[in-house]
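tl;dr need the bound structure. longer version: we got a ligand (glycine) that a collaborator sent over and nobodys looked at where it sits. i said id run it. heres the input, straight from their email, havent touched it
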Amino acid sequence: MTKAILHTVSPGIGDCELTYLERVAIDHSIASSQHQDYCSMLESLGVQITMLSDNDGLPDAVFVEDTALVFDELAVITRPGAESRRGETGLIEAELSKHRSIAQIKPPATLDGGDVIQMGSTVFVGQTARTNSAGIASLQKMLAPFDYEVRPVQVHGCLHLKSAACDISERSLLVNPSWLDLSPFSEFNVMTIDNTEPWAANAIHINGTVCLHSAFHKTIANLRELEFKVATTDVSEFQKAEGGLSCLSLRFR
Ligand code: GLY
């Protein structure tokens, strides 16, 4: 994983979509500073960043992961489940078309990138309020020529599949077992978050290092005990917008 597309924090982030949390004020300058620290963490791990900033009128634009999926063979521009987010994809498409051929999720299908975990040739897709069955079927059709297996996953009680589970190595996931059906992951290693830190499953792994929100002390300690190399950064302002570490970047080779 050597490249990532990010988007600056919209001045309107306080008007973001919210599904599970009560709205509380988000400090734009603290969020921007946390975003800068997040960039520095990625760069320190060898990631080359492209920073976009033309979607500032769209409150959730910083959560770029939801707008596209990047496979080695193609990029899929999503159709976000929240109508307020559909304007975010044009800018991402223009950027990704420099790197991949493009496929588009079309109405009535909806799909959020935060609902998708790729582990080798297996692609897990969360069934959520943001990703409908037509979205999963469209992705299945787009990926069929490349021999990917698309596996639906039942998710409940949280926004995205990646709120409940994230890959932390090629064969391992960090999960909150309360929020998803684990049976589709049976041949993978599953590590459970500390149950006092329900949001801690949202992680990314970059070039051998697992990155987590710095507040999840117990889960971080457990990972380190299992000899995972861990980097941390504070994304507390984004948590108020139901965002986590993974949605802040669109990472690809
Ligand atoms: N606020 C992030 C989302 O709902 O998509």
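gonna send this back to them w/ a short note. Residues 3-252 form a domain with the L-arginine/glycine Amidinotransferase; Chain A fold (CATH 3.75.10.10).
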